[in-house]
Amino acid sequence: MLRLACLFCLLATLADAGPWPREKGRVFTANSIELSGFRLDRDLMQTPYFSSTYIEYGLSRSLTIGLHVGHGSSAEIDARAFLRVPLSQTDPHRFAFELNAGMAGDTGYVGLGLQYGRGFTLFERNGWITVEGRVDMLSEERGMDYRQGKLDVTLGLTHPNGLKTMAQLFATETDGDIYASFAPGVAVPLWRRATLEAGLLLDMTRGNAPGLKLGLWQEF
Is 2.40.160.40 the CATH classification of the domain at 2-219? Predict the structure, then answer.
């Protein structure tokens, strides 16, 4: 169970848009790689990794669809398709509903999510906070069915030069097993509509060595 909890946390990304809908006809992509338990005394080729691609598309003003696909050292493919519908978009509070379905290795799942977000100003800088809760029903090939709860919280600030600083908390509970991680990071604008993401992955439940994450965001 703990393996699945860790796996679902790895499927989280700094690029998730929260309750703000993607503009109709626009595409957002994020490609990233994570190195888990990174240590200087370990051969880099032996460091567990997870790479992923996240895509979302504004199908209409009220519907965003997307796909998140990844694979890691185990070579298992993990994929999640979703659709997001805004429930309330009254400033400054934003709410959205999300329907998910996917496969994590040999485990299939469907889930419902609720997202909240709002913008704010701190020290003359624009910031945002998002909170996402999700409940998934998982079903393995050998016939085991169980529930998983997930909570992600993101706090970010945009600085005058376009640099974004972020702090994220990911928590997953699967059949009594809890996994949580903290991820501080930055997003650096490279060129028009492209951003470099870099951050740390800090294991809060097992005390493993920190992980590293690099990613590229693009808008079309």
Answer: yes
> Which residues share a beta bridge with 175?
none
What is the chain's pLDDT, residue by residue, as a tens digit (220 residues)?
Answer: 444 554 555 455 555 567 888 999 999 999 998 887 666 555 556 677 888 899 999 999 889 999 999 887 766 788 999 999 999 878 889 999 999 998 887 888 899 999 999 999 988 899 999 999 999 888 776 666 778 899 999 999 999 888 999 999 999 888 778 889 899 999 999 988 899 999 998 888 877 778 888 999 999 9
What's the one-letter identity of residue 133?
Answer: G
Cα-atom radius of gyration of the chain, to the nearest Å?
A: 17
The pTM for the full model equals: 0.86
> The dihedral of CA 116, 122, 27, 170: what is its sign?
negative
Write the single-letter amino acid at 163. Answer: L
Residue 54 CB coordination number (10 Å): 24
With H, G, I as helix, E, B as strand and everything else as coil, classify residue 114: strand
Residue 118 burial (CB count, 10 A): 16
The type of residue at 186 is: V
Instruction: Residue 172: name the closest of 127, 109, 129 by CA.
Output: 109
- Classify residue 14 as exposed, middle or buried by CB count within 10 Å of its CB (0-12, 13-18, 19+): buried
CA dihedral sign, ordered 57, 59, 62, 65:
negative
